[in-house]
Amino acid sequence: MTQAAPSSENATDAQSPSLHNTVTPDLIAGALRKTGYRATLSEHQGRMQVRSAAQGIGFFVAFGGAETLAATRYSDFAFHCWINIEGELRAGLIDSWNQTRRFARLFRQGSLMILTMDVLVAGGVDENHLCAQCELWDRVIQDFIRHLKQEAAPAPV
């Protein structure tokens, strides 16, 4: 007699990490804290977000993929860093970032330069994956700072 293998949904292996098909602001704040960041929950225009900072630059996490506006669980979220532009941007600054970087995109909206990175959790991710996304965001911000400094440096003669 053969027995059917337990489905992954019903498996109770204590060593298996639990997978999240959706996330909450509290869960993402916890992942940020676990990776060494401060994280505070706030409400903006009726929606929850998480605020923090990396490399001295403030950012926030916004949530999407909710079935209703009143939802508390989300299938995706995005890291956002908004930087006020003072003066003029060098031509090609934004395009050069987007052409040479993966994972995050940069764009201009009025007097703001916005760096953003989307994270999809549909299909299931564990807590380690969420923490890894927080660490990746930190790396993106480090690369962004280097990109800005590189772009600001005078060209060699």
Topology:
Layout (H helix, E strand, L loop, with lengths): L24 H10 L5 E5 L2 E8 L2 E8 L11 E9 L8 H8 L4 E5 L2 E9 L6 H26 L5
Antiparallel strand pairs: 1-2, 2-3, 3-4, 4-6, 5-6
Largest sheet: 6 strands, antiparallel
Number of strands: 6
Spell the H/E element sequence. Answer: HEEEEHEEH
* Portion in helices: 25-40%
Plain-language structure description:
With 157 residues, this protein is an alpha+beta fold. Helices cover 28% and strands 28% of the residues. It has three helices and six strands. The chain has helices spanning 25-34, 93-100, 127-152; strands at residues 40-44, 47-54, 57-64, 76-84, 105-109, 112-120. A six-stranded antiparallel β-sheet has the order 1-2-3-4-6-5. Strand 1 and strand 2 form a beta hairpin. Helix 1 (25-34) packs across helix 3 (127-152). The termini are far apart. Mean pLDDT is 85; it is low at 1-14.
